[in-house]
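Example record for the data management plan.
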Amino acid sequence: MPQFEMMEARPGIRIALDRRMPATADGHRPGFLWLGGFKSDMTGTKAQRLMDLAQGTDRLFIRFDYSGHGASQGRFEDGTLSLWLAEARMILGLAHDRPMILIGSSMGGFLALLLARRRIGRIAGLVLAAPAADMTEKMAAEIASNPQAQLALARDGVWLRPSRYGDPYPITRKLIEDGRQHLILPEGFDLHCPLRVLHGDQDPDVPWQHGLETFAAIRSPDAHFTLIKDGDHRLSRDEDIMAIHRAAEELAADYADKVASKAVNPSR
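Corresponding structural encoding:
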């Protein structure tokens, strides 16, 4: 396993991160922050490929593992959206005053929206791949329709949800209960930065209709939704990753152009 930096997230728990610094010293040039999905880690295909592509354009790129994920410490079963959001906020703080494009996949897209709603850091744009907004409500609905899941949650506080990607995912009562304080879809919110959502039309985990519902709930004058033909939930084909990268680079270039324009015309 690669050697990563370790940062204390809270007493007794350190999380792993990886930073690729740009060669240029311009602290106003947007960088990229990768926010991975539920039960995924930063060594996945998308994160690694996007980091390599960012190096080619001399971008700061930061990726990390939430506690209980990948190379980070902690038990997955102890995780909640509140804890993982706090960790994402801490990692975003590493960018200091540099503007950042948040690139979020699945749960990472949900967390990116939560960071933007709270106006954390200098967020210059969001690129979301199959964002799983309000995902704990979907889990709660699954449990409500599954007597065995209800029994497991009542008896053990955890339900082992089958996964098409390997071992079952432990879904805990506290994860679902905590998620209710982070809901986005019922009221939506006004986004202060550009938004790009990419979603596969063959996504079995977060259907594209949910992505479109999320897109509709976010009020932004600069927002685009892209439906990717034959794309699945992971969007890890090279053409999918390139589409994500292009969206991030376009937002970064647009931000730089606006900054340059204001420098030339301060009254704008």
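Summary line stored alongside the record: Residues 75 and 117 are 28 Å apart (CA to CA).
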